[in-house]
Amino acid sequence: MKAAYYEGNKRFSIGESKVIPPGPGQARMEVAYAGVCGTDVHVFLGHMDHRLTPPQVVGHEAVGTIAEVGQGVTDLKPGDRVVLRPTDACGTCPSCKRGHINICPKLNFIGITSAGAFQGSWTVPAHLLHKLPDDVNMVHAALIEPLAVATHDVRYGQVTAGDFCVILGAGPIGMLEALVCREKGATVVVSEVNASRVKLARELGFDVVNPSETDLVKYVFDQTGGAGADVVFEVTGTQAGADMMTKLPRTGGRIVIVAIFADPMMVDLRAILWREYTVIGARNYVKEDYDEAIRLVVEGNLPLEKLVSDIRPVSRIQETFEEIVGGKADFMKVLIDSSAD
Amino acid sequence: MKAAYYEGNKRFSIGESKVIPPGPGQARMEVAYAGVCGTDVHVFLGHMDHRLTPPQVVGHEAVGTIAEVGQGVTDLKPGDRVVLRPTDACGTCPSCKRGHINICPKLNFIGITSAGAFQGSWTVPAHLLHKLPDDVNMVHAALIEPLAVATHDVRYGQVTAGDFCVILGAGPIGMLEALVCREKGATVVVSEVNASRVKLARELGFDVVNPSETDLVKYVFDQTGGAGADVVFEVTGTQAGADMMTKLPRTGGRIVIVAIFADPMMVDLRAILWREYTVIGARNYVKEDYDEAIRLVVEGNLPLEKLVSDIRPVSRIQETFEEIVGGKADFMKVLIDSSAD
User: How far is the alpha carbon of B280 from chain A, nearest alpha carbon, in Å?
Assistant: First the structure.
């Protein structure tokens, strides 16, 4: 079994995956698929060199099968299909004590601060594994981690049936939020400027507006009888998104901040006051968001395979990241088949 | 009975108060006190000329006694002490239908869009009057309107006993929020740079930090064992306040936007995401906020008289507004004694 080692400075090397016997409380899984996340691209570009030690395997959106379990692990056995929740909180800080284990300042993000999933064999803390049914669609299951980001965001947005939701930015997370909102019974408008993402969102059946061509504010108010949107998800991380997010909600509406903004942005705080908006920061996920994402995958109603742009062996990691960074391919989500060399 | 008429261009004239018999659903009150609000100062400065028609009486923070009631008004009688809730919503728009009568886009703000309280006799919609006990302290009661802003803000901030609250800006509303938070059992830190406001906040028993002299962020984290504040109230309307508000809360903490920001501000949206803050716009009040403010005034535990800088007859309105605008006096709240010529 192979592994892709990040060597620093936009280079992966391919080597053997180290088979590490699980210690107490650990489990070793054979990774089936591991999705390439925007965070992995940041690693590739060297933005996160301060958080890892090359050569290091990265990747954290992983699904696979238990190979062996360590001492004290009683709820998992070899052959079980599992998905990893890669955020390991300290459990003792003020955040954790309030249940905010997703935003623990000492968060160990497995696949960044410790070895990741772009390899065949992966030894991880067993308490972070969620068991899946034996007949689960493993390609769908490979999207559980980003889907749990979406279920977290939608939960924070308090989306219920009949709500009118606007998704600003239809990358993988925005697209998954759109799917989860629709599954909740909400009406969804997707705002996106990238042509291939517009196309995919339309193929998924969404009402898509390109705000560079259409007046999105007028569109949303027209569609809602002059009321405005119940919930707006800001997933662009741009000034244009920060401007738009305070123009769309109804009075008393909600804005969920999902994108990681590189810099402070100009924000119309007067609109937040005047129309009594609630702006909600939503980051990562907790156990219940994983449970909800798993429930959605098991139900099988979400067309998640349409978000998978390609499935590639570990040996093609270098070219895959180069294509993503170079913008040569309009990828939505690429899965690495960690079982394939 | 006299009335102060705003004539435009920083001028009031003093004339007779017109005694208007109440029509159906109206009541005529004899105004005891009417507080001078920052909004009235904006009127004086000509900022709201588009919303009123000089010569017009302004003022909306009013308490008084019923003189007569119009047809169909059965729950009030002459002699009753009353306070006005000056925001009259349309009742039919999407906001009102959701109960957001405080942010109705068609809000009639009595004292701005119709005649106000700086006069002896005032005829108003009876359904906006809240009855007070006969033995209520009428000077305290004159602060019910701004106190209801504070009870609204504190309710939106979900402040409970044991919370650690920071008030950024100790003008009248910030000071009232501090009092309401303390009454709820919260620990309160007041941030203020103005020396006379610092002095008053200390006289009221608050822990006051001048952020131009003391590192407020360090102070708050030191005081909370490294956790941060549960709730921050932004009442400065400045870039410094917008910067500070995202530095103080604990993970999962709340920021209540109270100030009316004249322009968009730079805001650290990444901090809102990273620490999962909730930012809540809070404007005006609804009936239950008035009920809570009245309860607090009737209980009599708040030292509201300390916020009253002076009580002046209608005839001294011009000089009062000139002093406020000129910064000659360090007023917190001036009451106009509308019964005194």
Answer: 5
- Tokens read off for B86: 């000056």
Range of the domain at B86: 2-146+285-337
pLDDT exceeds cutoff 80 at B313: yes
Shortest Cα distance, chain A CAs vs residue B249, angstroms? 12
| Residue among A269, A270, A272 with most chain B CBs within 10 A, to mutate | A269
Cut 0.90: pTM above it: yes
Binning pLDDT at 50, 70 and 90, where does residue A329 land?
confident
Which residues of B form the catalytic set?
39, 42
Q: Among B55, B52, B29, B24, which Cα is nearest to B39's?
A: B52
Task: Tell me the chain B residues in contact with residue A226 when contact means C-beta distances shorter than 8 Å.
Answer: 94
Let me know whether A142 and A17 are in one domain: yes
Token digits of residue A240 = 């244009």
Active site residues of A: 39, 42
**Which among B266, B279, B281 has CB closest to A266?**
B266
What one-letter code names the amino acid at B266?
M
Interface pTM, i.e. ipTM = 0.95
Measured distance CA(B267)–CA(B80) in Å, rounded? 48
Does the residue A153 lie in any domain? no
* pLDDT band for position A237 (cuts 50, 70, 90): very high
Interface touch A103/B261, C-beta < 8 Å: no
Domain identity same for B245 and B330:
no
Contact yes or no for B281 and A276 at CB 8 A: yes
Residue B167 sits in the same domain as residue B277:
yes
In a domain, A12, yes or no: yes
Under 8 Å CB pairs connecting chains A and B tally to 138
Interface check for B268 against chain A (CB to CB < 8 A): the answer is yes
A275 contacts B98? CB cut-off 8 A: no
- Report CA torsion sign: A71, A74, A78, A84: negative
Beta pairing partners, B36:
none
Say whether both A128 and A177 belong to one domain. no
**How big is chain A, counted in residues?**
341
Residue B239: left if φ>0, alpha if ψ -120 to 50, beta else—which one?
alpha
Whether residue A295 is found in the same domain as residue A321: yes
B264 closest CB neighbour out of A100, A267, A275: A267
